[in-house]
Amino acid sequence: MNVKLPTLSEAKTQAKHIRAQLADQGEKIGHAQSLERVAHGLGYRDWNTLSPLLENPPILEWIVGNRITGQFLSQPFAGSIVAAKPSADGWTHLTLDLDEPVDVVTFDSFSNMRKRIRGVVGPKGHTAEKTSDGQPHLQIDL
């Protein structure tokens, strides 16, 4: 799903048109209801989910094959996007193939190296999940 989002102004204009069309058909709805219909039409759960994306659209498009850098479990990495599946709420499920494996264990007594990692990142390029020190599990450099 790679739908080009309208601007905030365009979305509000669409909502006004919906209200006018329905009023012509004898059905009256409020402004909030028309905004909800715009959000649903674009595949979003509701207006409150859609509107932040319209005000601050994502900077990056997650395209398979793109090179990226960032940090995974506070360790720097470089790699490529292997899979990107956007969800309706503005977050994207990413699978990354790292150039060099990163150790996902912080203990000195053993290691667990990963070359392929997955994460769900938001429009600002980081996961909601955080490590014990408050850092996102996965942070993509934008």
Proportion of residues in extended strands? 25-35%
State the separation between the terminal residues, measured CA to CA.
22 Å
Q: Write down the oligomeric state.
A: single chain
List unreliable stretches of 5+ residues.
none
Average of per-residue pLDDT values? 87
| Radius of gyration using CA atoms only | 20 Å
Determine the number of helices (DSSP H or I, runs of at least 4 residues). Answer: 3
- SSE series: HHHEEEEE
Which of globular, elongated, flat, extended, rod-shaped describes the shape?
elongated
Task: Bin the helical content.
Answer: 25-40%
Number of domains: 2
Quick one: biggest sheet? 5 strands, antiparallel
Strand order of the largest sheet: 4-3-2-1-5
Number-wise, the strands total 5
- Main structural class: alpha+beta
Describe this structure in words.
The protein is elongated and about 70 Å long. A hairpin with a 5-residue loop joins strand 2 (75-86) and strand 3 (92-103). The two termini are 22 Å apart. The mean pLDDT is 87. It has a 5-stranded antiparallel β-sheet, with no helix packed on it. The relative contact order is 0.14. It has 3 helices and 5 strands; from the N terminus they run H-H-H-E-E-E-E-E. The protein is an alpha+beta fold and 142 residues long. Helix 1 (8-24) crosses helix 2.
Note the topology.
Blueprint: H1 8-24, H2 31-41, H3 47-55, E1 67-72, E2 75-86, E3 92-103, E4 113-121, E5 138-140
Antiparallel strand pairs: 1-2, 1-5, 2-3, 3-4
Helix pairs in contact: 1-2, 2-3
